[in-house]
Every structure is written in structure tokens, then in C-alpha cells.
Predict the 3D structure of the following.
Amino acid sequence: MNAIFQFLKNNALPVAMLTGAVFHDFFSQFSFLMPYCLFAMLLLSFSKVSIRELKPKKLHFILLAIEVFGALGAYYALCGINKILAESVMVIILCPTATAAVVITTKLGGSAASITTYTLLANMTVAVVIPVLFPLIEPQEGVNFWDVFLTILSKVFPLLVCPMILAELLRHVTPKVHGFLLKYSGLSFYIWAFTLTTLLAKTVKTILETPENYHIDIMMAVAAMIICIVLFVSGKKIGSHFNDRISAGQAIGQKNTTFSIWVAQTYLNPLSSVCSGFYIIFQNLFNSWQLQKKRKMDEAQQSSTPS
């Protein structure tokens, strides 16, 4: 029994993904729980980070520039080939950092403060860029900057800013409750594993329900895999020059795919959201590989340390 629990602990993300894919009909029913899971997960994670530690750095603005201009460049490079593919690639690159990135970054030994700072900056940047950019790509009647800006902000604020404010209030007002959250902050990883199961179940179900688009699905799957590798590797290489390799890789590699799917379906061609569904799979396969590598390195270090 201990061996089974140890296996599940060491392989939480691959098991979560496989479970969601195989039992997609069952777990897709729990998608309504995702906002609550994300809130709880972030509250636990933010209990380890003080607002005073959130300081924008030069690295953060370099990564923001890469995402904004990289998204534009990819769109114009691909729109002559296939506009839906161009839109889907642009959405992924422009998409802000996943709220769960702080969980994985902490597990990998990166800076929680750095990734949290960047996540806030990225979400605010996207809230400004999308209302300006998307109407030029897919004109829609009656869509104006402030409507889109406030709609995006209403989706970002409750799930990203509120847990941070609550964690900071608990730190100062009720230290005992904050200490309790701090003690069990590791549970955020397993909440994320459940969220991933539900998210992948919903993605697989959506893909299976539209088999007539298999040709563009294949194109988007390949594109999602390439983007995933390029973003993670680029982030790590740039971050290594600022002694922040892990956080930088997660910052532009781990995407808020739920947000990108919603944006694509709302403001662009709805088919462009499929690429974000595939990106969920690849980014979490990459995260699983990173976590396995980190675990093996830690085990090797422990075995080499004299008792």
C-alpha cells in the first residue's frame, strides 16, 4: 500500500492526466469546481509569499515583450498559411501565466515571489492588449475596449488577486490561521492535480465531440507541442542570465489555458481554442518530466550526502 501511495505521489500529474483522459465523461462533470479549487490552491500558495516580496524586475519586462511581440510575429507569419492556426498560436503565446504556475515553480525550487509578480504583470498586460488587438483581427460589432477590458479583469481579479489579498490579511489579522495554511501549503499541488484531471477530461471530451475537424486538430496539436518546447526553453535560457531560470521558464511556458480557450471562443474563431486544449497536454507532460527530473536529482543528492 505504501508503494502505491509513493507511486501516486511521485507521478501525480501523469496519473491525473491519464485519469482525466480515460474517464473524461465522468470527470468533466466536475468542471464547475475548478474556480473553487484554483482559489484554494492559490490561497495555500500565497500564504508562503508576502506582498512586500512582489517586485517587478527587468527580466519580467523582457518576458512580457517576448510574449506580446512573439504573439504578433507568429500571427503574421502564419496567417498566410491558415488564419485559424495563426489565431490559435497567437492566443497561446499571448496567454498569461497559469495561476497554478506558482505551485509547480515552488515544487521545482524556483522563486514563488518572482513567478507571482510576473503572473500579475502578465494578466494586467493581456487585459490591455487583447481589447486593442483582437478587434483588428476579428472585427465584432458593438465590441469596445472598456467592455472587453472589464470583462477580462472580472475573470482575473477573483481568482488571482483575491486569494493574495486574503492570504496577506490572514498573515496580519489571524496569524494562527495563516500558520495553519502555511503548514498545509503542500496540498496545493494535489488540488492542482485534481483540477488538471477535470481540465483534461473537459478537453478530451471537446476534441472527441468534433471529429470532423481532425485535419486542423492535427495541425494544432503539432503547433501546440512546438510552442510549448520553444516557450519553456526560451524562458529558461533568458532566466539563467538573471539567476531565475526555473521561474522564467514557468512564467512564459505554463499558460492559463482555461483563459485562452475562453478568449478564443469569445473574440476569435471558436476553432482556434482547440490548440489551447492540446497545449494543456504538452505543458503538463513537460511539467511532469521536470518534476521527475527534480525528484531524481534530490534523491541522488540525499544518497550522496553522508549521514
